[in-house]
Write a structure and sequence with these properties.
Elements lengths: L1 E6 L5 E4 L2 E5 L3 E4 L2 E7 L5 E2 L3 E5 L8 E4 L1 E2 L1
Parallel strand pairs: 1-8
Antiparallel strand pairs: 1-4, 2-3, 2-5, 5-7, 6-9
């Protein structure tokens, strides 16, 4: 398993490949590979989505994704 943190100013559901993965600002578990990340709810953030290859992560060094409020 791999680790990712999706940063956002609000608590939102994190979507990975169209399915809920967990909440923003928390360490989340995900399978190794290519993933498309977005947030649930209002589309008041940028970028609209992030495509990322998740591999070689640890709980100490998770993959970091940041969405910004617009």
């Amino acid at each position: 398993m791999e680790y990712v943190i999706v940063n956002f100013i609000e608590n939102r559901a994190v979507m990975a490949n169209g399915k809920k993965l967990g909440q923003t600002n928390q360490t989340l578990l995900i399978e190794k590979g290519n993933h498309n990340f977005s947030l649930d709810g209002l589309q008041n953030y940028r970028p609209a989505q992030v495509m990322a290859v998740i591999k070689d992560t640890t709980t100490i060094t998770p993959y970091q994704i940041t969405f910004n409020l617009v």
